[in-house]
Amino acid sequence: MLIAEGLVKRYGPRRALDGFDLTVPAGEIVGLIGHNGAGKTTFVEIVAGLVRPDAGRVTIAALDALSAGRAARRFLGMAPQESALYGAATVRENVRLFAGLAGLRGRHRDAEIARVLDELHLTAVTDRPVAALSGGQRRRVQAATAMVGSPPLLLLDEPTAGADPETRSALLSAVRARAEAGAAVVYTTHYLPELVDLDATLALARDGRIIARGTRAELTRHLPGELRVTFADPAEPELRLPTTDPGADLAALLASGRTPTSVDVHRPGLDDLYRSLETAATATGTEVRDAA
What we know:
The protein is an alpha/beta fold. It has helices spanning 40-47, 65-68, 70-73, 91-101, 106-119, 135-147, 165-180, 192-197, 216-220, 246-255, 270-283; strands at 2-11, 14-24, 29-33, 55-60, 63-64, 76-79, 153-157, 184-188, 201-206, 209-214, 225-231, 238-243, 260-266.
């Protein structure tokens, strides 16, 4: 559904993107992660047609997005990091505008608006001005403008930043449903547990390029976990041992004659993966550029 190849974007001497490659097939949620300045938002803006790259290609639904323009953009919905809503307009009016831009008309448009507002728990505030809503409600309205019409590609840039638990739950549920229906989803976030909830594959950006891509299991397979063992001995009440084979290491510990009072195995997760990749990239001598 989405193929980005060799994207480069310069802002003066800085490179926001420096050979950025990412493919997102239909039905997959890709968690795009990386520190501020890694190029995530610049990438989303280029795919959405808001920024033009200096080099590279973007293909959406087999269309060259950089030359096809509006024809390609009709396949996508975008929820930007910053609000792009009309505060004086009601929730319904905002979503109706984006439904019209998606090509929806008449009864089909009205039915789709009602469906997406219900899906994102916005029915009770349908006729309120957006400016009168809470921050979490506005986040859900922004997501509704992206999802109305069920576009086959969703670009969601930090959709739950600062959101309350109700907003986060509603958004994650809606994103899962869209992917299950076949949409390709690019989901940028700093909240790594959300990507576990979404069962997302991962793409880690650094210095304007993707440095790791795969499933969570694939990317954490070779990372060490930690064996956490406590003892009754006050001189050494706890032992934390890095391990790739918890069973063998525990057996060796028991064979030494020490008797634990509790044993816990911490398996590597997204935070461990993130730290390991950042450490490896730093060890090469590269620096994070101050990019958009």
